[in-house]
Amino acid sequence: MEWLQQLVNGISIGSIYALIALGYTMVYGIIKLINFAHGDVFMIGAFVGFYGLTHWHIGFIPSLLAAMIICSILGVVIERLAYKRLRNATRIAALITAIGMSLLIEYTTIFFRGAQPEAYPDNAVISKTFTVFGTQISSESIIILVTTIVLMLLLQFIVHKTKIGKAMRAVSHDMEAARLMGINVNNTISATFAIGSALAGAAGVVFGLYYTKIDPLMGIIPGVKAFIAAVLGGIGSIPGAMTGGMVLGIVETVVSALGFSMWRDAAAFIILILILIFKPAGIFGKNTREKV
Amino acid sequence: MKNNNLKKYGALIVSSALLLGTLTACGSKDSGSGSGSSDGDTIKIGLNLELSGAVASYGSGISKGAELAIKEINDAGGIDGKKIEAVKIDNKSENSEATSAALKLATQEKVVAQIGSATSGNTVAAVQVADQNKMPLISPSGTSQTVTVNDDGAVNEYAFRTCFIDPFQGKIAADFASNDLKAKNVAIFADSSSDYAKGLAEAFKKQIEANGGKVVAEESYVAKDTDFKSTLTRLKSKNPDFIYVPGYYEEVGLIVKQARSIGIDAPMMGGDGWDSPKIVELAGAKSLDNTFFTNHYSAEDPDEKIQKFVKSFKEANDDKSPDAFNALGYDSVYWLKDAIERAGSTKGEDIQKALAETKDLSLVTGEISVDEEHNTIKSATVLEFKDGKQVFKTKVEP
Known about the structure:
Chain B: Keywords: Amino-acid transport, Signal, Transport. Chain A is mostly helical. Chain A has one domain (about 15-220). Chain A has helices at about 1-30, 40-55, 60-85, 90-115, 140-160, 165-175, 175-180, 185-210, 220-235, 240-255, 265-280; strands at about 120, 130, 135-140, 215. Chain B has 2 domains: about 40-165 and about 300-380, 3-Layer(aba) Sandwich (Rossmann fold), CATH 3.40.50.2300; about 165-295, Rossmann fold. In chain B, about 45% of the residues lie in helices and about 20% in strands. The longest helix of chain B has 26 residues, at about 1-25. Chain B is elongated. The N and C termini of chain B lie far apart (about 70 Å).
């Protein structure tokens, strides 16, 4: 039953990667920017959830919602302050700004509360372990999976069935044409940032719940891993980000399970390199030819 | 003009300081070579400690313990009728500052011996100065081998330590696992990014195999990892009846929690890196049940000597319970006192000899003896977590 247990482990970590990867992919899809500050929005979400549970005592679901709301506001503020004026600048300028934004969020957090880690309370949700076919499944794993599935269904609904979703798809397809058709491009981009950041905030809270320890620099590694997941699935593609996250989580788990735990992080980066060499568009990516 | 005045005054101050220095030197009866001199009715001890900087909590802990010991000794009449006078210098947790502090203690203050520093790195920085000036040095908590033995394998004649060395904890844990827990098939899960953890794991493995146990799995992680479940699941499939996890509390807390959540009930154990209240927050009190760690001492130990120390420390420090650093600082002073009394002199050479010959000296953190490499042989305390509290379990003799 060891492998079933490993599958459960892989899906839990994969769900978190997938939630973060969605934000990367949505932002990239619409303004072709890799938002490296996204991992830090995830960190802020984890802290908001922590304060919600331990200082404001509002329970799990309200804490999750608070983290999502605060993160979506943060995402919009980042976009309006840093990225909006660079929309017509070179890609490299925007990329460097994103890295700067990431460092700014990390060290502002350290400035205000120090670098020491914080532990999520263990009574935040009913902690219980279920045994299925000899496999231990904790209630936290189930919460992660349920939260991820619910949020992804909600996202699919927003993107495909609502007006703002239609606008997002249009802007992502052709920003200029969308503007000519009377779509408010700025608001659409802000909405994309808001939704992506809310997902990162939710990922932060479930991460804290599952792994207990949170600290101001916790966003770096999951952020990079989620970026790999987004590239793996095909950056710009929403189902791609979900699949990429799950695949990456399971691959990492399998590498550790085979006894190569020291190679786990390396495996993720090897995947990134291989994908970039052999299938740069990713699993679900469209193979678009550059027009000359 | 102003500059000139400053120079004049400066010269005046310097010359008067020099004059004062000569006078004091004349005043002292004992004028032996190098350090190891002290004036008529006091014995000067140097404290070269980390009172500020990165590991200030270690240094100030030692300082509190040492001060209590000095006060007690002076209240009881001092050493052979002479009072102890402490000269405290802050080395700011920096190696270069530790070296210059040692130099100042040896040449200007002319202390009979130095206590400090807390970390192995800062102590090593002062060891050469101590050797050159024949000033015995006792590090209360420098656990690294390099404190007393230099890179060429030669013993640093004047360097000693009050604590045990790193590999010793691994040995004690192995003995505890085989004898008290009757563990046969053990697993090791060590932090591969820390020399401390690797040293403990290696010593543990050697001893458990010598005890007839079998290491069924050996895995490692890197500090700052958060997901250990996949490796733990692998460990679980090997069915170990004991898991050794040397490392620091930040990761250990998560490892214990995740191990329990996938159904590993085997006892887990580590070293003094586990000693932090944060571990309880990270792992949760329930997960920590059936886990143990080795430490220098426990305030819960029913031993008479320890309880007496705990009581007097609490009286002097607003009812705060003493930690391992407080106890080691306290012991260092008493050890030095014992050596000076046995030597019957305050000369550096004589104290050094007496320290090296220490045998079965009973202190708060255990009975200590010194081997030929100046490693301190003493007992270690095993603590158990019960409902998130550290409970004294047993003391293991070397």
